[in-house]
Amino acid sequence: MTYYIYIENNKINGSGQAKIIDENIYSFVVNELEYNNFIENPEKYVWDEETETVIDNPNYEEVQAQKEAERISKLTLTKRIFALALQEMGITYSQLKTLISTNEQAQLEWDLCVELERSNPLLDIMAAQIGVTAEQLDYIFRKGNGEDVELPDSETEDSANESEEL
Q1: What is residue 102's DSSP assignment?
Q2: What pLDDT, in 10s, does the model give residues 46-99?
Q3: CA-to-CA distance for 54 and 71, rounded, in angstroms?
Q4: 88: left (phi > 0), else alpha (psi -120 to 50), else beta?
């Protein structure tokens, strides 16, 4: 069996097991393993014009990280789940309410929202004031949406560990 990755305008445009007869589309022959890897994750590969071969996408990790950040930014949580997650991290509801009361915009949003949106920059600002990092906020939202994730260390713990090593 022959496997192809199709190239059109110097970009990968698909794959298949039949050679395309079109002067605008180049049918690049690949082995079965390369074909199956491409089918499984096509974004991982790009066409290299210089070598006229399919290569690993040098920007793949960056693109995937950006997509993941965008996905996380769209997550929402109820205030209850958020407060309970903070409590698990050692931040009491009283501390949370005190923090909220110090910022009129935070108080307005807390009082009027049904769900918290991870994309709200006010969350990062307020969380930093109680020692919660952006990574820990991501954890709270991911965990609260049923993902199996581990709690990242806080920056203060990392700093303390680095000081001890010196």
Answers
A1: T
A2: 999 999 999 999 999 999 999 999 999 999 999 999 999 999 999 999 999 999
A3: 28
A4: alpha
- Asked if 39 and 106 touch (Cβ cutoff 8 Å), the reply is no
Predicted TM-score of the model (pTM): 0.70
Max CA distance (Å), the chain: 70
Phi-psi category of 18—alpha, beta or left, where left has phi over 0 and alpha has psi -120 to 50? beta
Distance of CA 111 to the CA centre of its chain: 29
The torsion angles phi and psi of 119, rounded to 5 degrees, stand at: -75, -10
Please list, in sequence order, all residues whose beta carbon lies within 8 angstroms of the beta carbon of residue 91, skipping any fewer than 6 positions away: 130, 132
Pairing relation of β-strands 25-30 and 11-16?
unpaired
Q: What is the DSSP string of 10-62?
A: TEEEEEESS---BTTEEEEEE-HHHHHHHHH-GGGEEEETTTTEEEE-TTHHH
How remote is the C-alpha of 109 from its chain's centroid? 25
State how far the Cα of 137 lies from the Cα of 142, in Å rounded to an integer.
9
